[in-house]
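Dear colleague,

Thank you for sharing your sequence with our group. We've completed the structure prediction you requested, and as agreed, I am returning the results in plain text so they can be pasted directly into your records. Please verify that the sequence below matches your submission; if there's any discrepancy, let me know and we will rerun it promptly.
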Amino acid sequence: MGDIGAPELLIILVVLLLLFGGSQLPKLARSLGQAKKEFASALSDDKKSEDKSGDTLA
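Please find the predicted structure tokens below.
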């Protein structure tokens, strides 16, 4: 449960194509990729600062 397979991805892509149109999809994909990269960078920076300070939440 919770696994996304090929049929589900195809349905999602078709819905995105209908909502945003073909010309907007590359811009949308680019912005999602940048957001993912920034999120991962923020998590990495937080992990590094946690390791330096030695403080843990748990």
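Summary note from our side: The chain has one domain: 4-48.

Kind regards,
the structure core
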